[in-house]
Design goal:
Strand content: under 5%
Helix content: 55-70%
Shape: globular
Order of helices and strands: HHHHHHHHHHHHHHHHHHHHHHHHHHHHH
Number of strands: 0
Largest sheet: none
Structural class: mainly alpha
Distance between the termini: 70 Å
């Protein structure tokens, strides 16, 4: 459809009937080319593409005849409604260059930019913008602003697999550079300008102000970056490998070459876009070969579900059979792809780039470094063994292969929670709380201790019992105590570090596991906040106590706080220890029966409720320290009662008594 259908009708069209000399689009000349089925219930996509072909051709000739200055005068003012009007000057340069890969890249960036801008228009009227461009173009909200006939034109170009489907064909890596006629890129530029004209009229008529959503700046990966910066040596190897690797299709090689050119020119977003589409292309071919389903190599046909990253990286095929690709690629490669493409708290680079959410000039080099290095290591797996050995003899490449083979998830909820549990903030706050020297307190201190001594003693007793129970489930070689009756609190942080260092499978986690992880994440978040609040309150009240500026009631509250802190410190560490142990055994969630799972989830939510209440009571506004002791006693009782039922994950896992010594 893309390569031939638009050229079937040979008809000469007058550009002046389509675009005026000052760049205003005459929509009727375009919308008249969109035709409908006999029942008038649906668009006739093929017939519309045929009729639109001559229009696209004359628009392309028109833009080709303009100088860049003329283009900027006639069209750029109408492109200001998009989030990136400067992008269209680049697109003009690409069209002028006649370089097919650059034109395809331009069309990808244009469709992403247009989708973002259309979402902004939708939000003038609607509340929740559709995620898919197809649904956005079919919305009543956009039809209200631009008119249904205009939206149908866009649907023919980018909104349906039955039409040209330019956005999906390019972003999913189906089209080779020479397969997309430049006239479609030129036409999309003019259509975007024409929609800017229609939007201006709508805003004026309805007295509305245009306020597009700001683009996001994708943060750098920080400790999520496993590979080092790309060096000239690595680039040199990739330049050679991509010509020899069977992973790269011959027709797609120009995209890889341009990707490296853009990287060297510090156009990191461009490089990332091209790499992502070509990784999908290569993986799709590998997916079809390994799973013995060559029919899945179809281009984006209107008659079949075409294969994208969603299917390629899934655990199962559509027929329920196991997808063999993850087994072939190995867990480290799959974890990398899920980290960068799928996990909600990861960079999700393909989604964010293709939906136009990212400020392209600010795209971080670090993300592109990771994609380039991963691609280099992946392509090496598909060259002849002798040649691969030559490349791997290079120290830099050998190091990258080693890092790739040891990759583990960084943005899976479990990985984030382990990092959060072992957060230096939490542990440093706990250390800080325990390190505060208690000032010599007057008689009120003893009175405060007596006021809640029974509950404090009960809490301490429960802490000992629960700790004793938990410790019996610490994995081998991770114990730090020789005496189960003497577990000094200062040794707990090391135990937490060791537990959080145990690798747990994260690929294809069931929904139940993710639900549990969400609750655990929220518990740790609350613990962290409580730690910060307690330290801040102690510093402030300690200083006021020393300066003797506290009123009578404030002095009493400070004394209560001093006893409460003694209890909170081990309790928060106990909760973190429980979470760390449950994380080690998180796969056991899948083995729970439905009613057992619901009881377990209810227990975790009760701990979350406790930490949320603790967060509220230790806030400067409430400052309720006696209440925190009572809350803590109730929570510890609940933990002990549930522990006795042997329904925690540590109880379902194989019992393993620790013998290691600190």
């Amino acid at each position: 459809m893309i390569c031939k259908l638009g050229f079937e009708v040979r008809e000469s069209r007058d550009i002046n009937s389509i675009v005026t000399q000052n760049g205003e689009v005459c929509w009727k000349a375009i919308t008249d080319c969109v035709i409908y089925t006999q029942s008038a219930q649906a668009l006739d996509y093929q017939g519309s593409v045929r009729l639109l072909g001559p229009v696209c051709e004359v628009i392309h000739l028109h833009l080709s005849s303009l100088t860049k200055g003329q283009f900027e005068i006639q069209y750029v003012p109408w492109l200001q409604w998009t989030s990136s009007p400067e992008l269209f000057a680049e697109i003009f340069d690409a069209l002028e260059s006649l370089q097919s890969p650059a034109i395809s890249l331009s069309l990808m960036k244009l469709t992403a930019c247009l989708e973002r801008a259309l979402g902004d228009v939708f939000l003038l009227i609607g509340k929740e913008c559709p995620f898919l461009l197809r649904d956005l173009l079919a919305s009543e909200e956009l039809a209200q602003v631009f008119g249904l006939s205009v939206m149908n034109v866009l649907r023919v170009f980018v909104g349906s697999p039955c039409g040209l489907n330019l956005r999906n064909v390019l972003w999913h890596g189906f089209a080779a550079p020479h397969e997309v006629p430049p006239m479609y890129c030129s036409t999309m530029v003019v259509l975007t300008a024409g929609m800017g004209q229609l939007l201006k009229s709508y805003l004026q008529q309805n007295k509305l102000t245009w306020a597009p959503r700001p683009l996001i700046a994708l943060p750098d990966l920080e400790d999520g970056a496993v590979f080092p910066e790309v060096t000239r040596e690595v680039l040199s190897v990739l330049e050679e490998v991509m010509k020899k690797s069977t992973f790269v299709l011959g027709t797609m090689l120009p995209y890889w070459e341009v990707a490296l050119i853009r990287f060297k020119s510090h156009r990191f977003a461009d490089c990332a876009i091209l790499l992502l589409t070509q990784l999908e292309t290569g993986l799709r071919h590998l997916f079809a070969t390994i799973n013995k389903c060559p029919q899945r190599l179809l281009t984006a046909e209107s008659t079949a579900l075409y294969t994208t990253f969603d299917e390629i990286l899934a655990k199962h095929l559509n027929d329920g059979e196991i997808n063999q690709l993850p087994l072939f690629l190995g867990e480290p490669a799959m974890e990398f792809l899920w980290d960068f493409l799928n996990h909600q708290q990861g960079p999700r680079v393909r989604d964010r780039l293709s939906h136009g959410e990212i400020n392209l000039p600010e795209f971080p080099k670090g993300v592109t470094d990771q994609l380039l290095t991963f691609s280099t290591v992946l392509l090496l797996r598909f060259v002849e063994e002798e040649l691969a050995s030559v490349f791997k003899e290079k120290a830099a490449i050998q190091s990258l292969v080693h890092l790739a083979e040891g990759y583990s998830a960084h943005f899976h909820p479990m990985s984030l929670l382990r990092k959060q549990t072992f957060s230096s903030q939490v542990l440093s706050c706990e250390k800080s709380i325990r390190a505060w020297p208690l000032l010599p307190l007057p008689r009120e201190a003893e009175e405060a201790r007596l006021e809640c001594s029974s509950e404090i003693n009960a809490c301490n007793s429960l802490i000992i019992k629960i700790t004793h129970e938990l410790y019996h489930h610490v994995p081998e070689n991770h114990g730090v105590f020789t005496d189960l009756d003497n577990r000094p609190i200062e040794k707990w942080p090391r135990l937490l570090r060791e537990l959080c260092g145990i690798r747990v499978p994260t690929l294809f986690c069931p929904r139940a596991v993710l639900e549990v992880l969400t609750v655990l994440q929220n518990i740790v978040r609350c613990c962290t906040h409580v730690s910060h609040q307690v330290v801040a309150s102690w510093v402030r009240r300690h200083q006021q106590w020393a300066e003797k500026t506290l009123r009578s009631r404030q002095r009493q509250n400070f004394v209560r706080m001093s006893w409460s802190i003694k209890l909170l410190s081990p309790v928060l560490l106990l909760i973190l220890l429980l979470i760390a142990l449950e994380l080690v055994n998180i796969p056991e969630v899948h083995g729970k029966k439905t009613d057992e799972y619901q009881q377990y989830l209810k227990f975790l939510k009760s701990i979350l409720q406790y930490t949320e209440n603790l967060e509220a009571h230790t806030s400067p506004e409430k400052n309720k320290w006696i209440e925190t002791i009572r809350l803590t006693h109730t929570a510890l009782l609940r933990m002990w009662t549930f522990s006795e039922k042997k329904q925690m994950l540590i109880h379902l896992a194989k019992k393993c008594t620790s013998t290691a010594v600190l």
